[in-house]
């Protein structure tokens, strides 16, 4: 069995978000969970080939299985390309706990379909949220748009937390134990904090998911896809079939660039994509 470490949503080694990738034929989920806990990447993907166009991918954090993971999918197809299991300029399908989704490989740029976008409940407990992040509650929101904290999903639920300034975003200092409990109570994976106070791209984000053993993540494809839909529903983004750039990871020293697209105006869906760089490859015994 082949094992890769791949940095996703970057073209530079040691940027983006690292993921483990295992190409296998018969591993069971108990082994997958133990291996993910051993290597301790935010997600490790386990790929099983079904036929030349279809793959099953299971995603594990160090503590649990999750339905979908954008950066680990980018990492998976980077590894599959290197191993000649897929070809450039083709479309493939992955079976996940979030459904069967299309993945396009185009000149080594990998873009994946997300599950149906959904918005959930809003959160008006600004004082509590501010205490969770050791921040001023007046920094929650946006200077130019009426944005409120709200749950959103394109396969995984996160709370979209708008922050008015980039400085305030960088200054967030979460109480991870309390945030994990808050996430559990509200049935979300974590909090995707973002600001529109940027000179490049649409937004810059920080993602916190201590409930699943990930205090902070440097690139989260599913969360930025959910953010794309949230911003569309809040009239910040309005163009379909156009690439939107989101930044993440700068506060961690791992700059990441996530590309999203709004598709199908009649029944909106979101795609998320980027490139990956292989850091190492080996055998799993």
Automatic annotation (TrEMBL):
- The answer to whether UniProt assigns keyword Isomerase to this entry is yes
Active site per database record = 43
**Any one GO molecular function term:** isomerase activity
> In terms of domain of life, where is this protein from?
Bacteria
Q: Which residues form a coiled coil?
A: none
Q: Which GO terms describe its cellular component?
A: cytoplasm
Residue ranges spanning the membrane: these are none
Q: Which SUPFAM superfamilies match?
A: Diaminopimelate epimerase-like
InterPro entries membership = Phenazine_PhzF-like
Pfam families referenced in this protein's UniProt entry, alphabetically: PhzC-PhzF (PF02567)
The keyword Mitochondrion is annotated on this UniProt entry: no
Listed A to Z, the keywords are:
Isomerase
Assigned protein family: Belongs to the PhzF family.
The protein's name in its UniProt record = PhzF family phenazine biosynthesis protein
């Amino acid at each position: 069995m082949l094992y890769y470490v791949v940095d996703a949503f970057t073209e530079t080694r040691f940027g983006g978000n690292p993921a483990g990738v295992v190409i296998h034929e018969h591993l069971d989920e108990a082994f997958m969970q133990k291996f993910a806990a051993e290597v301790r990447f935010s997600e490790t993907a386990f790929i099983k080939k079904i036929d030349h166009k279809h793959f099953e991918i299971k995603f594990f954090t160090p503590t649990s299985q999750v339905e979908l993971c954008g950066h680990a999918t980018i990492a998976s197809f980077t590894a599959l390309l290197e191993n000649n299991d897929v070809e450039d300029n083709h479309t493939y399908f992955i079976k996940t706990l979030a459904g069967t989704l299309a993945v396009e490989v185009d000149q080594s740029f990998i873009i994946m379909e997300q599950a149906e976008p959904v918005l959930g409940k809003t959160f008006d407990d600004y004082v509590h949220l501010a205490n969770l992040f050791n921040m001023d509650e007046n920094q929650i929101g946006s200077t130019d748009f009426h944005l409120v904290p709200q749950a959103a999903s394109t396969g995984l639920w996160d709370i979209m937390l708008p922050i008015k300034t980039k400085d305030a975003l960088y200054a967030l200092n979460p109480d991870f134990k309390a945030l994990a409990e808050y996430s559990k109570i509200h049935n979300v994976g974590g909090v995707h904090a973002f600001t529109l106070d940027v000179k490049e791209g649409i937004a810059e984000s920080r993602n916190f998911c201590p409930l699943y053993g990930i205090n902070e993540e440097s690139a989260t494809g599913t969360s930025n896809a959910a953010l794309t839909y949230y911003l569309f529903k809040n009239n910040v983004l309005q163009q379909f079939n156009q690439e939107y750039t989101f930044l993440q990871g700068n506060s961690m020293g791992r700059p990441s660039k996530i590309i999203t697209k709004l598709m199908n105006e009649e029944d909106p869906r979101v795609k998320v994509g980027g490139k990956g760089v292989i850091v190492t490859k080996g055998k799993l015994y």
